[in-house]
């Protein structure tokens, strides 16, 4: 596969470092393989978590912090470019100690205990995010 002069080798499996911010670690992993358009999946565990929920009527995120250890049952998202840098959009389904679930839009402040990610680059031009007036969000152009 060849796109924009970059050779895409297919899915890449990466172990992310303990103690690091999950979104930051994924963005750095994406940059290290020049992924500007990719699917991302992650499982593992977090030391603490920050999730967001977008209030559509108010056009803003409210965030929720969880200072407890959780398992990442399912982390699904994508990588595109925002302001010229890899931007990770990730949703998380998490398990608490009693196996009940919580979930939401991953925000900065989710700290890795252990995480295994799969980044799957997609061929073609880079996906670029820009402000979308009808939603108030930064969506794909
Ligand atoms: Zn989201």
Notes on the structure:
There is one protein chain. The chain has 1 helix and 11 strands, in the order βββαββββββββ. With 141 residues, the chain is mainly β. The chain has one domain (2-135): Hypothetical protein, similar to alpha- acetolactate decarboxylase, domain 2 (60s Ribosomal Protein L30, Chain: A), CATH 3.30.1330.80. Strands 3, 4, 5, 6, 7, 8 and 9 form a 7-stranded antiparallel sheet that branches. The chain has a two-stranded antiparallel sheet with strand order 1-2. Strands 10-11 form a two-stranded antiparallel sheet. The radius of gyration is 15 Å and the shape is globular. The model is unreliable at 1-5 (pLDDT under 50). It binds zinc ion. Zinc ion binds at residues 89, 91, 105.
- Based on the structure given, which CATH architecture is correct? 2-Layer Sandwich
Mean pLDDT: 94
CATH homologous superfamily identity: Hypothetical protein, similar to alpha- acetolactate decarboxylase, domain 2
- Write down the overall geometry: globular
Per DSSP, the total helix count is 1
Largest sheet, if any?
Answer: 7 strands, antiparallel
Quote the distance from N terminus to C terminus: 24 Å
CATH class designation: Alpha Beta
Question: H/E element string?
Answer: EEEHEEEEEEEE
Q: Kindly estimate the percentage of residues that lie in beta strands according to DSSP.
A: over 45%
Share of helix among residues? under 10%
Instruction: Show unreliable segments.
Output: 1-5
């Amino acid at each position: 596969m060849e796109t924009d002069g970059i050779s895409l080798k297919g899915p890449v499996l990466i172990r992310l470092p303990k103690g690091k911010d999950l979104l930051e670690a994924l963005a750095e992993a994406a940059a290290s393989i020049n992924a500007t358009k990719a699917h991302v999946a992650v499982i593992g565990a977090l030391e603490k978590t920050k999730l967001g929920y977008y209030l559509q009527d108010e056009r803003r995120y409210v965030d929720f912090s969880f200072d407890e250890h959780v398992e990442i049952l399912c982390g699904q998202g994508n990588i595109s470019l925002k302001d010229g840098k890899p931007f990770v959009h990730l949703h998380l389904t998490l398990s608490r100690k009693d196996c009940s679930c919580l979930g939401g839009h991953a925000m900065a402040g989710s700290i890795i205990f252990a995480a295994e990610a799969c980044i799957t680059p997609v061929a073609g031009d880079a996906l670029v995010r820009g402000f979308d007036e009808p939603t108030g969000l930064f969506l794909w152009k």
